[in-house]
Design brief:
Keywords: Glycosidase, Hydrolase. By secondary structure, the protein is an alpha+beta fold. The protein contains ten helices and 44 strands. A nine-stranded antiparallel beta sheet has the order 11-4-5-6-7-22-19-18-16. It has a six-stranded antiparallel beta sheet with strand order 3-14-15-21-20-17, with no helix packed on it.
Length: 745
């Protein structure tokens, strides 16, 4: 929210009070509290009829400092609150006083504030460099004539500092100059609204900020006070965490460890998914024709997904197959599984009035209520739909029991759609605050479904295809980018959303190949295929038209075949990257900022990414194949052609539909599988170690780890390039080959 009218004045009806003067500071061993007057105190009388702002600080984890600003502390906390599974049982900080300054230190991060005089906060890195600060207007509250009360903070932006993240946002990748509101919405990919609002941003200076508030948080990123990031909540208390680096990877690792590291998706989920599409006509014969058509054309398929109309119209969700269209669901699923497929079905947390579950849920009190005690209902999406109340443990168990029936039929995963349009004029079973629950609802929804999958299928076999998320939602992968148009522009905005989500702690992300709305031009479809099959997860999906490749011509079939098989060959490398995301929070699809934080150009690159640490992908967003992309420092080798390019430099190239800039970093050793037919094959069978040593590469030693399908280490290879000779030492007796690309001798 914006409070000011230019630099000098407040907006009409707004009255702001800023922490101005330190009146007292209290230190414990691991936390501190400061009390700041909102005006200069010249005499005793100035302490009367005036507020204090209480500022408390502690460390929920090493390298993370929490600051809580409070005006009136008596407001009842109704919840919900973000779960912080990585929080320490007590503050992970030490305190000390140095002259007229108090300090709280946790790992490489220190908070410094004066013990007397002018109030202010400074956050310093391990070398004593000021990362950011809250200056004279940095800790405050504002009252508005409409009766609302807002707490807000401002943290300084340095010259050239860029801000990233804040969830899956399709607006410009660098958030400087934007107003960003944390409020879940079903707005598609072409608006400022977002399905996944994450109140965390990452700075190019090597720190992050997480606002620990699940309700609406308004960010003004250099868009009100141009040298500040301002964030505000309509509340009496505001808590934010500053997360230390020093590198962006370190920031993400600390943040993800605090809010929850992502589960490791099963290897089969990295293969190609094909869906029925949304409103198209389909039955078992249609589905079988799609599956057989993919096999006949040599396009490996891993997952088949049934979208909404596997259920009867007006009865979403009753979790029952439409008997007129699918009279033998168990037999159909078995027949599809005999073809080597996993099965996913669409669900949402809404129960239409025509569904048999409506009467059951209403009788048991499992739906969200109005303040008058009625069931909250509306007709948007499903006629008379009610909303499952996941704050009620019995309602959650009931919902899970309905899904278990599908798992018993052979379903392997769920597309957890929707969860954004959650009303605020309702009453929750556990008494949660409706405004705070609006964003947080999707977390409870995805958690309920994911935990059921883990219970029934086992840890490491659970996977969602989720659209909405809140902070901590990265624990329940995978998430996809929502409803986009079938155009190059929408393809680019989808990538921007994925990059922003990656810098918000999410390790795995996907999108609808070809776009969702409309029918893509064949050129769009073919370019999107390459992009989609070089993403962490890959799904062909549309709205009113099918997305089987032959609908877009023979060349589309060739492109789909080529890049699906390439992804399968990359799986020993890619699953190793997935294991890293699972263990550290560093995402599989990495904005260049993560690997090249000192490169100013890398901070703004939003049309390319790194797949893991070593493979650069620059999707082509044009019909004619012209692409402009940035090559970071070093020598890079085109994986598809063997050509080398040297950076830092911008490149302009033209690529056919069977190609795109796909570059491997100098000195990398890619572990490539021999099995092109599936993502979860036996990776150690005839493994290839491809060593990238173009001219000018110095001697190096690389350790390559190939995981098994549980994420454990299956084999380790130490690769040494010295004097033009390659030596490999390994702990496995399985045969492998070594290929040197750009060999010097």
């Amino acid at each position: 929210m914006k409070f000011t009218d230019g630099f000098w004045q407040m907006r009409s009806g707004v009255h702001a009070s800023y922490a101005t003067e330190v009146r007292d500071v209290r230190l414990d061993d691991d936390r501190l509290a400061a009390y700041a007057a909102v005006k200069r105190v010249e005499r005793r009388g100035d302490t009367l009829n005036a507020p204090l702002i209480t500022v408390e600080a502690h460390a929920p984890a090493e390298g993370v400092i929490a600051v809580r600003l409070t005006h009136h502390a008596g407001k009842r906390r109704k919840g919900p609150d973000f779960e912080l599974p990585g929080a320490a049982p007590r503050s992970a900080a030490t305190t000390r006083t140095r002259g007229t300054t108090a300090e709280l230190t946790s790992g490489p991060l220190t908070l410094r504030l004066p013990t007397e005089g002018t109030f202010g906060l400074e956050f310093l890195d391990g070398d004593g460099r000021v990362l950011t600060s809250a200056g004279r207007k940095g800790s405050a509250f504002a009252t508005v004539d409409d009766g609302s009360h807002h707490m807000f903070a401002q943290l300084a932006l340095g010259v050239g500092e860029t801000v990233h993240g804040l969830g899956e946002r399709f607006t410009p990748y660098v958030k400087n100059g934007q107003t960003v509101d944390m409020w879940q919405a079903d707005g598609g990919t072409s608006s400022e609204q977002a399905y996944k609002n994450i109140p965390f941003y990452l700075s190019s200076r090597g720190y992050g900020v997480f606002v620990n508030h699940p309700g609406k948080v308004s960010f003004e990123v250099g868009s009100e006070a141009v040298g500040q990031v301002q964030f505000s909540v309509e509340d009496q208390t505001l808590e934010y965490f500053v997360v230390a680096g020093p590198t962006p990877k370190d920031v993400l690792s600390r943040y993800a460890a605090l809010t929850g590291l992502p589960a490791l998706p099963p290897a089969w989920s990295f293969g190609l998914w094909l869906t029925t599409s949304f409103t198209t006509s389909y039955d078992e014969a249609t589905v079988t024709s799609f599956v057989d058509g993919m096999a006949e054309r040599g396009i490996p398929l891993s997952v088949f997904h049934f979208d909404c109309f596997w259920m009867r119209e007006y009865q979403w969700c009753d979790f029952e197959w439409d008997p007129a269209v699918f009279p033998d669901p168990e037999g159909m699923i078995a027949r599809l599984k005999d073809k080597g497929l996993k099965i996913c079905v669409w669900i949402n947390p809404y129960i239409g009035q025509k569904s048999a579950l409506y009467e059951e849920g209403a009788e048991k009190g499992y739906f969200v209520l109005t303040p008058d005690g009625d069931i909250w209902q509306w007709d948007k999406w499903q006629a008379g739909m009610a909303l499952v109340d996941f704050t009620n443990p019995d309602a959650t168990a009931w919902f899970q029991a309905k899904l278990k029936v599908l798992l018993d039929q052979g379903v392997d995963g769920f597309k957890t759609d929707f969860g954004e349009r959650i009303p605020t004029d309702v009453v929750w079973h556990d008494g949660s605050d409706a405004e705070r629950m609006h964003n947080y609802y999707t977390h409870l929804y995805n958690k309920a479904v994911f935990e059921l999958l883990e219970k029934e299928r086992g840890q490491g076999e659970a996977v969602l295809f989720a659209r909405s998320a809140a902070a901590g939602g990265q624990q329940y992968p995978v998430h996809w980018g929502g409803d986009c148009w079938s155009s190059f522009e929408a393809m680019a905005e989808s990538l921007r959303g994925g990059l922003s989500l990656s810098l918000s702690g999410f390790g795995f992300w996907s999108h609808d190949i070809g776009g969702f709305e409309g029918t893509p031009d064949p050129a769009v479809f073919k370019r999107w295929l390459a992009f989609g099959l070089l993403s962490s997860h890959s799904r062909l999906h549309g709205s009113s038209s099918y997305r089987v490749p032959w609908e877009f011509g023979d060349e589309a079939v060739d492109v789909a075949r080529q890049f699906t098989r390439l992804k399968h060959r990359l799986m020993p490398y890619l699953y190793g990257v997935a294991v890293e995301a699972h263990r550290t929070g560093v995402p599989t699809m990495r904005p260049l900022l993560l690997e090249f934080p000192e490169d100013p150009t890398a901070r703004t690159a939003d049309r390319q990414y790194l797949l893991g640490p070593d493979v650069l992908v620059a999707p082509v967003f044009t019909d004619d194949g012209e692409v402009e992309y940035y090559v970071p420092e070093g020598t890079w080798t085109h994986l598809l052609t063997g050509d080398t390019v040297t950076g830092p430099a911008w490149r302009r190239e033209t690529h056919g539909f069977d190609s795109l800039p796909l570059l491997v970093r100098q000195g990398a050793v890619l572990a490539l599988g021999a099995d092109e037919s599936r993502p979860d094959g036996e990776w150690l069978d005839d493994l290839e170690l491809r060593v990238f040593a173009p001219a000018g590469t110095g001697d190096f030693t690389r350790t390559v780890t190939v995981p098994d399908r549980t994420g454990a280490v299956a084999a380790t290879y130490e690769v040494v390039l010295e004097g033009g000779e390659v030596r490999v030492t390994t702990d496995t007796d399985r045969p492998y080959t070594v290929t040197v690309v750009g060999e010097r001798a």
